[in-house]
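[job 0417] fold request received: CULT domain-containing protein
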Amino acid sequence: MFLIACFILLLCSHIYCTAHSPDDKYGQELLLCRKCGADVADSHYIFTKQSPGARKTEKQNLFGRHNITVQTLVNPFGIKFDIITTEKAKCQNIGPNQGADSWFPGYTWRICTCPHCGHHLGWTFESNSSIENTEDEINSFHGLILSNILGENFTDSLIMMPKMYRM
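[job 0417] inference complete; emitting structure tokens
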């Protein structure tokens, strides 16, 4: 009986996963806090905001998307961060806006932490221009540290059925 229940659950999850088209506008893949697993962003909102200070820029296939721009940025203390940029994220911003040492000219920054556990996720960048932004410029965005987030599909792959129950 237990094997039948496991098979039904496995079948239902397969049907659910295949019913969601990768072309859906939202919900491509949730980005999770690596420390607590809380959802902090949706891969739909990943976009490219190029930093002139990037030491390295490369395209990667991540979070159910192709050609995501990953930038390697270095802070004044020499610490390297690989980041992606998103239009929206669930961030608890810490402290006042800082203008010094911004990787994105014309933007101030604040530390972005997970609203659930407080883990450092990256930074929130806000335009310091009060003038209406052009098409290329947006009011705010987030730079998320790649090593501090996980894709939900990756975490789902970590949960495996015990060998004795596999068919």
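[job 0417] notes: The chain has one domain: 28-165. The longest helix spans residues 2-19.
[job 0417] exit 0
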